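Input chain follows. Return C-alpha cells only.
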Amino acid sequence: MPPVLRGVALLTLPAAVLAGAFLFVFYSAALPRPLSGLEIHAPYLAFAIGAVLAVTFKRGRVLAALVVLLIAYVAQQLWLQAGVDSLRARTVYLALGLFVPLNLAVLAFVPERGTLNRHGALRLAVLAAQAALTAWIIWSGSTGLVAAAYHPFLGRGAVSAGHLPQLSILVIALGLLATLFATFLTRSAINANLAGAIVAFAVGAHVIGASTAFSVFIAAAKVMLTVGVLQDTFRMAFRDELTGLPSRRALNEQLMAVPRTYTIAMLDVDHFKKFNDTYGHDLGDQILRMIAGRIARVGGGGRAFRYGGEEFTVLFPGKGLGEAVPFLEALRENVEAYQLALRASDRPKKSKGSKRQRGGWRAKRSVSVTISIGVAERNERLPTPEEVIQAADRALYRAKEKGRNQVSR
C-alpha cells in the first residue's frame, strides 16, 4: 500500500469513533434510565482504561494526552457548564482552547520516552505551569489580556464556532494540520488518533455548556488514544521497524492460514557483511530499506516479510512454483539494476580487522547490490510450511554456491 494510502487508512478509526460519538449524542435522550449517567462518567472510565494501557505498554505520549483531556473535562464540569460570562469562565475556556490542541499537537512530534520517569514528570510539569498561568490570570483580574485574546482578528462573523475565540480556532486548525502532517510522515497510529482527539475536542468545545456533548466527545478522544496504543503495540509486534515490512511473527501467523497450494521464497542480500564493513551500517540500513521496498512490490500476489538480518521471505498463496519464479526473477533484476549513490556523509567508520585504501571510498559514486533467491512449493513431499521454508532455504544456499545473484529451485 502506498504511504499516502497507509496514512489515510490510519485516519479511518478516528473518523469511525467520531461518527459513533455524533450518533451517541443524537440518541442519548433515548438511553434507558440505568444508562442515563453513562455520558457523564464515560470520560473518567475511558481515562482509567487508557492510562492503564499506556503505563503497561510504556506510551508516555498517550498518557500525557489522556491527562490533558482529563483536565479539560474536569475544568468544564467545574466552571463552564453555566456558560462563559465571568472572567474565570472566559479565561478557563480560552486556556482550554489554546492549550489542549497545542499540547496534543506537540505530543505528535516528541519522541516516545516512556511513562513513569523524568520525561513523564517533565510533561506533568508543563501542564502544571499552564494551569498556574491560567490561575494567575484569573487571580490578577487581567481582563484586558483576556479581552485581547477574544478579539476577532479576522473581523466579527468571518470565522466562528460557538463561543470559541478566533485565536483558539486558529490554534486548533494549526494543531490539526500539524498532527495530520506527523501522521503521514511517520504513519503512526498514535499520531492519527491525536489528530482525531483534536477534532473531538473542537466539536465538544464549540458547545462548551452542553455537558453531554462535551463529555461524549472527550470520552471519544480518549477511546481513540487507547485504541492507538493497541494499534501501535500490534505494529511493533508484527512489523519490522527498519524496513516497515511485516515481521517473522506476522509470517508465522500467515502460514497458519495458507491454502493448499502455495510457494515460499527465501531471499538473502549477497555479501552483505562485507558491504557493511566497507561502507558502514548506516548505508547498510539504506540498502535493506531499498530492497524491502522492492520486495514489497513483487508481483503475482506475493507477500513480503523480513525474516531476520539481511534475509527476507516472500509468500505466494495459491501460486505454484512455475507461477512464482518469473516474478522473483523480475525482482532480482530490479534489485541488481538499482544504483545507490554514495555521498561524503556516507563515509563509514574504519572496518574491523582490515585497512581500506586511503580515499578509496571516494572513488565510487554509487554502489549496487544483488540478491540470491531460493524457492520451494508445497507438495506431497513438503506438506508443512516449516518443511517448505527449509527447502527454500536449501535452495537459497544452492543459489549462493552457484555464484549468487540468481533464483534457485
